[in-house]
Amino acid sequence: MDVRRVEDPADFLAAASPLLMADEARHNLMLGIAGTLRDHPSHYPDYGLWLAEDGSKTVGAALRTPPHNLVVARPRHDSALEALAAAIDEELPGVGSAQPEADAFAAAWAAKTGAKPRTHRAQGLFALERVEHPPTISGRMRDAGGADRPLLLDWFEAFAEEAIGESPGPESAAHTVDHRLEAEQAGVSLWEDGRPVSLASFGNPTPNGIRIGPVYTPPEYRRRGYASALVAELSERLLAGRRFCFLFTDLANPTANRIYEQIGYRRVCEAAEIVFES
User: Which domains are assigned to the chain?
Assistant: First the structure.
């Protein structure tokens, strides 16, 4: 088995697509990021793409956009993850992928480097094909624009602090928000009820789907159905011409998981963000 680093995201997608499209929902993160690398190269100026190959067949794939964690695909053979771990010649802060491949790569990386893997966050990966509408509530959805940028920056940072446990910093938040506002197949929607009360972002399209996230409602506006109404309406709009909408949830937040299930999202698999500690 050989591992090669690929420089061209289009070449990476062409070679990895048979592996990734065997389970598009499971691999939506890798497909979406690789597509962004291909279509919007300035968004991730630094990246790494690796393929594990058995003859002419791709049996494993990995992707990273520093400073973020590595993402790995479900391999055709378990040995592909060991081969990738052996071949990747750079420091990794962690791996974030579906299970069990996240744990399997973490074990291979620990055996190589002596790092200690620690699960930072257990996640659920959900996909939706048809919206089940929640009860009607007051307010309406609208697309966010440039005038909303200060609010979006505040809410994106607040989401990261709450969901991830750390602030991305104003520069990182601005980079993400500006891309969502400017990219053709990305955006941010707001639910308004006299004022903006909830946010849902989307982007990273796959061949047949698109990912929603982050979703954020400030604490003072929660438990009023705003996020449910917003995600349901946004999902229905995004499904026009697509088969799927995807999103990740924090399994430690049963309320959010229940909200998404009630509007038609179904769990595809579990995932994990695993950090590597020295």
Answer: 2-123 (3.40.630), 130-242 (3.40.630.30)
**110: burial class by Cβ within 10 Å (0-12, 13-18, 19+)?**
middle
Q: Give CA–CA dist 218/113, Å, rounded.
A: 41
Do 197 and 220 touch, CB atoms closer than 8 A? no
Least confidently predicted of 70-79, 88-97, 204-213, 247-256:
247-256
CA distances from 124 to 39, 130, 218 (A): 28, 19, 22
Tokens of 219: 């604490």
DSSP letter at 221 equals: G
Amino acid letter for position 11: D
The upper half-sphere exposure of residue 156, i.e. CA atoms within 13 Å in the direction of its Cβ, equals 24
Q: Is residue 39 a contact partner of residue 205, using CB atoms and an 8 Å limit?
A: no
Q: Which residue from 187, 216, 190, 189 is spatially nearest to 203, judged by alpha carbons? A: 187
CA 254 to CA 257: how far, in whole Å?
5
Assess whether pLDDT exceeds 90 at residue 166: no
User: DSSP label at 70?
Assistant: B
Taking alpha carbons only, the member of 149, 156, 155 closest to residue 172 is 156
Give the DSSP letter string of 173-217. Answer: HHHHHHHHHHSTT-EEEEEESSSEEEEEEEE---SSEEEEEEEE-
Total residues found in the chain within this entry: 278
Q: Is the pTM above the cut of 0.85?
A: yes
The SS3 of residue 239 is: coil
Query: Which residue in 41, 39, 86, 91 sits closest to 60, CA to CA?
Result: 86
- Residue 140 pairs with which residues in a beta bridge? 192
Amino acid at 222: R
CA 148 to chain centre: 23
Q: What is the mean pLDDT of the chain?
A: 94
